Every structure is written in structure tokens, then in C-alpha cells.
Amino acid sequence: MADFDLAVVGGGINGTGIARDAAGRGLRVLLVEQNDLASGTSSASSKLIHGGLRYLEQGWLRLVRESLAEREVMLRMAPHLIRPMRFVLPAEPAMRPPWMLRAGLFVYDHLGGRKILPPTRTIDLARDPLGAPLREPHGQGFEYSDCVADDARLVVLSALDAAERGAVIRTRTRCIRAERGAAWRLVLEVRGRRDLATARVLVDATGPWIKQFAGEVLRQEAPVPARLDKGSHIVVPRLFEHDRAYVLQAHDRRIVFAIPFQRDFTLIGTTDQGFAGELATVTPSVDEITYLCHVANRHFCARITPADVVWSFAGVRSLHDDGAKRAQNVSRDYVLALDEREAPLLTVYGGKITTYRRLAEQALDRLAHLFEAGPAWTRDSRLPGGEFPWDGIGRLAAETRRARPFLSEAHAWRLVRAYGTRVDRVLGPARSIEDLGPWLGADLTGAEVRYLMEREWAQTEDDVLWRRTKLGLRFSPDERERLAKFMAAMVGGP
Ligand SMILES: Cc1cc2nc3c(=O)[nH]c(=O)nc-3n(C[C@H](O)[C@H](O)[C@H](O)COP(=O)(O)OP(=O)(O)OC[C@H]3O[C@@H](n4cnc5c(N)ncnc54)[C@H](O)[C@@H]3O)c2cc1C
Fold first, then answer.
1. Which of 12, 64, 208, 270 has most Cβ atoms within 10 angstroms of its Cβ?
2. Which atom of ligand 1 lies closest to the CA of 314?
């Protein structure tokens, strides 16, 4: 008998989503990730849980409808990681006429069965305070709803939920060979050591590594043609004081978002272009950074240059190649390809953070005839720590501060946003800030790092500073070194 029913390669949003769904249906699941969870595209998204207003222009109705409906399902599933956001879209008649925006937003409001999120409203940018940060605050604008999320933590908490339902999650474990017979025989590499595992079904959720995985590990062609597209973001000190985001129309018809980020910053992105290069080290080019600064400067009073960029990141998506010429015209919809010639292989193309739960559900439905597995279950589920109402985060933060008055307001909010109702597991029996162990920089304490290492697979400073938290934005090089030493001591190093 094979060791596992299902082996999933890839610890991004799609791999962890599928592992979680499968484990919850009672299957024996293995997930392997060559690096850290969410170290690929899934921590480099625009962090939107959205229908994709722009996709209406492309006529991708199926994807928009499903994504719009998923916004509220996701908000209920992870109310700590996901929050409603209002987006301000200034009308620029030279780009897209206001009637077109209004019509698009009408469809957007009505297509997905919206219950929680407020509808679109029209605003007069000359009078409304939301016009104030803009260079040309005149004419009409629209304010509509979507959500924003902590993409990397969605991945980690999906993996955690999968593990709590019995899945085996192995990070820093690379699948270097997959031999196919009546079952799959996987050769895994873990810190230079070889290991073997067998599974009845293999899921390729390697995202942009799809061609490499097919060629080098499976030694076959990818079942459908894939295309790689890169997008970049920059983070700068906040460009405006309020809590809404802006949707900017660039001259080349691209859409650029400017989103409040981590309280003191603005996230600006994204670019969109074909990609060929080394996936392990993908970064924004100088041209992309300059482009994003230029789009921001064209719209906002505040001026930025590349020297203001405190952080930047780039991600690559693997999309089903539908032959479109321009990157922004390639369908963002996902494709699941099932090959049952011998031991079954399911290959995942595309997908969005927004639709990962649905993608996982459909993946398991496609495999249903192969197992005696339980029914779909994730629609009304919660991710770990998300067991509270979608609008209950303020109450949770207040309760946490009442129980632990030594936490500052900002600290309590950061912790409940990351851990939700599991904040008590992070803080343990602490009754004072000193009880949380050494202070390591910003508001990161030894207790939190210990929790991340013991429960959330964190092994390096980057795992902690950029994927489990975003405290990398606030850490100095000295603090980073102190964190590295603390983590080394935790695993018995120097
Ligand atoms: C610029 C950009 C912005 C985006 N913005 C949004 C957004 O705002 N909202 C939204 O909903 N979606 C967005 N998306 C889409 C979304 O981010 C991606 O579709 C999604 O993250 C893809 O997840 P994945 O799990 O398929 O791939 P990945 O996250 O890349 O995961 C694949 C994993 O497989 C691992 N792997 C590869 N080969 C092996 C191997 N041999 N052994 C073990 N592990 C292996 C990799 O290390 C990697 O971690 C955006 C995408 C991009 C590029």
C-alpha cells in the first residue's frame, strides 16, 4: 500500500489549499515544499481578495462571478487575515468613460451575491476628502468594495489546518524525481539527504515551476501549454492618511493599485510582463520600480522616487497559455488537468489567492472517483484562529488588551490580525511584557518567534520577518542579527 493517498508538490496557496481540503475529507496527505511555505508567488501577490473589476473588460465573467462570491466566503473563513477595503477609482474620461466604469461597477455589485460588503457610491472628488491626496481632485470618482488579505499567512494557516487534520507538511523538502507506476514513487531531497515516499495520486501545485517540474522531475511535457508572467510591487512610506485604497489608470491602460499597508506604508503595484529567467531570485527591475513611481506621481500630490522605496517584491504566475499577445490579456482563470494514464497526476495552472478554496474543492471533486473520501466541507469552515465573526476583530483586540494590559494597542492589533483567537497560544501565561522573553526588534518577542518555530514551520529570519509577519519593514540589520542568533539558539545552534 502507498504511504499516502495524495502527495502535493508545492507549498503555495494552491498546494496548501488542496492539502487542507483533502485532509479534511479523510485522505492521507503529504505536502512537500522545497523552500518555505509561501516563498513563491503566494507571498508576492497584490494581496487583494477581489472579483477583478478589470477582468470584466476582458469578458472573464465566470472568473469574476466566482471570485466575487468567494470574497465573503473567505472573509468569514479568515476574518483575522482578510478585511473589507473600499477602493477609490477616479474617473479619467481620456482612459475609460465614466459611464463604462459605472456600468462595470453595477455588474460588479450584483454579479456575486454580495451580502456583507457595501455597494458602490459615486463621489465628487472636488468636495470629498478622498479627493484631497490626488493631484487633480476634480470630476467624478467611484468608491467600491473588495477585500485585502495577508497572502502569506493564508498559506501558512491553510498548511496548519491541513496538519491539524492529519496531513504531513514537509518544508525545505524538494521533490527531485517522481516515478510513475501503479503508484507514485517520489524521491525527496532534504538538506542534501535523500528520502522516499509513495502516493496513489500526485498533485503538481508548483505554480511557476510547472515547466521545470514537468521537464526535470516528471520528465514529460506539461499537459497543457503554460505561460509565465511577472508582476512587481513597491512599498513606500504612506502617501495618504485615510484607510481607503486607490485604483489608478495608467496611460498604457494598466491598472495600478495604491493600498494602505502595515499601518505606515502604501503598497503600489502591479506591473505585468512576460517572464523568462531564474525563479528563485525574481525581483522587480529598475524599469518597473520607475514605472510604478511614475504612475503614483501622476496621480498623487505626494512625490516619490525609487529612493523612497523601502521594500519591493516580484512574483511570477503560471497561466494556461491561451495565445493572448499581451500579458494583461492572458486569462487569470485556473485549469485543472487530470491525467489518469497510470497513477493519476493532477496539474494546477493559474489560480488566484481569492479562489484558492474553490480551486481546492474542485480539485478534490475531480479526484473523488479515486478515493472513498468525504464530501466538500470548506465553504463554512474557519482557518485556525478565525473562529469569530467577520467584523469582530476590534472586539478581539479590545479583549486581548483587557486580558493583557501590558500590550500596546498597536501590538495587540498586530497579534490578533496575525493569530486571531489563537493569540493566547502565542502569549502563553505571560502577565508582563518581560514574560514574553527577549525583545528582538519592533514588537517581536521571543514568545512569538518560539511559537512560529514550533507551530508554523518558521526556520529562518526571512520566514519570520517577511512571511509570518511583515516586521522586516521595521527591523534594522542589528535586530535581524539578534533574531538570527535567537533562532539558532532555539534549534541548539551557536
Ligand atoms: C504580481 C502578482 C499579483 C497577484 N495578485 C493577486 C491578488 O491580488 N489577488 C489574487 O487573488 N491573486 C493574485 N495573484 C495570483 C496569485 O498570487 C497566484 O495565482 C498564486 O499565488 C499561485 O499560487 P501557487 O500555489 O500556484 O504558486 P506558488 O505560490 O508559486 O507556489 C508554488 C510552490 O511550489 C514550490 N515548488 C516548486 N517546485 C518544487 C519541487 N520540485 N519540490 C517542492 N516544492 C516545489 C515552490 O517553492 C513554491 O513555493 C497575483 C499574482 C501575481 C504574479
1. 12
2. 1
The amino acid sitting at 118 is: P
SS3 for 207-248 is HHHHHHHHHHHHCCCCCCCEEEEEEEEEEEECCCCCCCEEEE
The pLDDT > 70 percentage for the chain reads 98
DSSP β-bridge partners for residue 228 = 318
Q: Which atom from ligand 1 is nearest to the alpha carbon of 32?
A: 43
How far, in Å, CA of 39 to CA of 282, rounded? 11
| 353 CA → ligand 1 middle, Å | 8
Ligand 1 binding pocket mutation candidate from 285, 353, 359, 457 (most atoms within 8 A of CB): 353
In this structure, the residue with its CA closest to atom 15 of ligand 1 is: 352
45 lines ligand 1 (CB under 6 A): yes
Query: Virtual CA dihedral for 129, 130, 134, 138, nearest 10 degrees?
Result: -80
| pLDDT at residue 198 tops 60 | yes
* 1-37 pLDDT, tens digit each: 999 999 999 999 999 999 999 999 999 999 999 999 9
- Computed over every residue of the chain, the mean pLDDT equals 95
What confidence score (pLDDT) does residue 328 get?
A: 67
Residue 332 has pLDDT above 80, yes or no: no
- The answer to whether the CB of 377 falls within 8 A of the CB of 25 is yes
- Provide the CB-side half-sphere exposure for 280 (13 A, CA): 4
For residue 148 the three cell numbers come to 485585502
Is residue 353 within 8 Å of residue 361, measured between CB atoms?
Answer: no
H helices of 368-491, where?
A: 393-403, 409-419, 423-427, 446-455, 461-462, 477-490
C-alpha cell at 415: 497579534
Give the residue carrying C-alpha cell 497584490. Answer: 46
Q: Looking at the whole model, is its pTM more than 0.90? A: yes
Whether ligand 1 lies within 6 angstroms of the CB of 41 is answered as: yes
Is the CB–ligand 1 distance for residue 14 below 6 Å?
A: yes
DSSP string, 49-89: E---HHHHHHT-HHHHHHHHHHHHHHHHH-TTTEEEEEEEE
Paired residues of 204 in beta bridges: 9, 347
Average of per-residue pLDDT across 78-98: 93
Task: Verify whether ligand 1 is closer than 6 Å to residue 51 (CB atom).
Answer: no
CA angle at 254 for the pair 251 and 260, rounded to the nearest 5°: 105
* CB distance 39 to ligand 1 below 6 Å: yes
Residue 322, Cβ neighbours under 10 Å: how many?
13
Integer Rg of the chain from CA = 22
* Beta carbons of 381 and 408 less than 8 angstroms apart: no
Ligand 1 within 6 A of CB of 10: yes
pLDDT one-digit tens code per residue, 463-489: 999 999 999 999 999 999 999 999 999
